[in-house]
Amino acid sequence: MRFVFKTSYRQDMGLFRDGVQLSWYVGLLVLLAVLPLLVPTYLIDISMVFIYGLCGLSLMVLAGYTGLVSLGHAAFLGIGAYAHVYFTQDLGLPWLVSVALAAALTAGAGVLVGLPALRMTGVYLSIATLAFALIIQEVLSHWDSVTGGLRGKAVGKAVILGVSFGGSGAFYFLCLAFLMGGLLLTQNLLRAPTGRAWVAIRDSEIAAQSMGVNLAAYKTIAFAYSAALMGVAGALFAHKVGYLAPDIFTVLLSIQFLLMVVVGGLGSLHGALYGAVFVAMLPVLISGARDSVPGWFGQVFGVFGASAGEAVTLAVDRFVKQPALEPGIFGLILALFILFEPLGIYGRWLKIKLYFSMFPLYKSATFKRQKAYMRSERLR
Amino acid sequence: MSFFEARDLVINFGGVRALDGVSFEVERGQVFTVIGPNGAGKTTIFNVISRIYDPARGQLIFDGEDITRVPPHDIARRGIARTFQNIELFEHATVLENLLLGRHTHRRSRFLEELLCLPRVRALELEHREAVEKVIDFLDLMPYRESLIANLPYGIRKVVEMGRALCAEPRLLLLDEPSSGLSVEETEDMAFWIQDIRELLGVTVLMVEHDMSLVSAVSDRVLALNYGRPIALGTAREVQEHPEVIKAYLGG
Fold first, then answer.
1. Which CATH number is correct for B4-79+170-250, 3.40.50.300, 3.40.50.9100, 3.30.499.10, 3.90.1150.10?
2. A343 CB near a chain B CB, below 8 Å?
3. Domains: count for chain A
4. Do the Cβ atoms of B161 and B179 come closer than 8 Å?
């Protein structure tokens, strides 16, 4: 195990624990910088991972750090995307101004959702955000003059200060830059009093309040900041998909975001990014499986005769072509993670790392959570 | 004019009158203890002071100011910090982060400054850190600075919670059963700390406590409650020998 010898309080405020950690991140950055040369055909897909990363960051602030679970984050993405397209194409505003305005607008929407949500906790809050998302979806489909209604709206290429980011390589770096910016700003907040207040609200509202945290104010800030990140992600998302339609921003997308933070690991920025990679890869894996899995079953059951093999292939094929298969798998994965690895991929990674750094002294009970028997009397 | 005063507090939960005309005064620099059998309304007093509950009647005066209708999060800023009977720490944060949250009332940085992590924010963070380190030093929490609360034994958590309250640099400290769940040795340590808090830090202490050895060791004044009504007030010895108090505890 490596111990960091601390000689200054400033070391605890740094972004990186020590030089070793910093060099890992530099290595990752170098890898991301040369990736366009290595896998030029997948760049669009990887840009999607970055955009999802921003979305994950957004929901992580709200659900992972402040403890407010939102089932309507796709609505913020939609508001950001439509606002950005409207600002740049209909009003002709410069790209950067438009993104800033879209972020401000979604932050405002976040405050609007946040205010009534302050009186609600747990599942009631989630339902309120769900209702908000449904309302926004209706607005997007019916406000023809701004959103193009059900016909949708074509999105042009991103042009910033006269430079076109339409090419897949340029767009890749644009998304990467925004993701890194988002990570830096979020990390800044998390190591400052605001972030500590969020964590305090998540772990014990009553104690946070008694220590002077204004619950309403900090929950509203969390909502606004989370929504603003989502708005920026929405602007990039609009360019990525190229055509906006209201049925993109469905509840299913919101649930994918939730899947992202839960699977990645609640309460860590790493988790948001692992989750983004996972959620962006999953549809690719599922569509791959759609083509190959029926054949495998056919081969296995082929031992009982060719006709049995064909029948099984057809049956499995019918099953995997069900349109509801994807959301079903999302839900299943979410439930399995909550049951078996509540700390998510990041938590699993920490356990593996600790196992090797403590070898052979690792105790399997290290991460067992103590039962808090006394919590029953907790004030609400 | 006393430092802290509760005047005729009344609070009802449905048909139950949890506090029924409780009045007491705490002088500056005192350790004032509230005792009583289960359900006597001791913790309810604390929750009224923290403004978690609204009293049906009565007033709270702190340092010459009426705080009966102050919003809950403003109580800490006025210099009143508290601990909880069942420990309400932030479990998934380190001891250091918990203590730093105790500094929340002294926050002076604004949101945008924090977003950009400006030098001013860093300088203020260093100030907070220094104040926290003083408390860590005071309560001997050095070995646990980086530990997650979830990994700490109960006795240490109790001390950390008191430390978090001290980080707010309160003028009045509310301790809700500081010795509950502690071993005999830990309770003795707690008694020394409470004396130190009063004598070295000059903080007035209002506490709820069951352990009579701790109560007698540190309290200047003791108030006994039963069914929300005050039944005796005086020194620890006087209250312990009061016939009403004996009756409340032993029945008869």
1. 3.40.50.300
2. no
3. 2
4. no
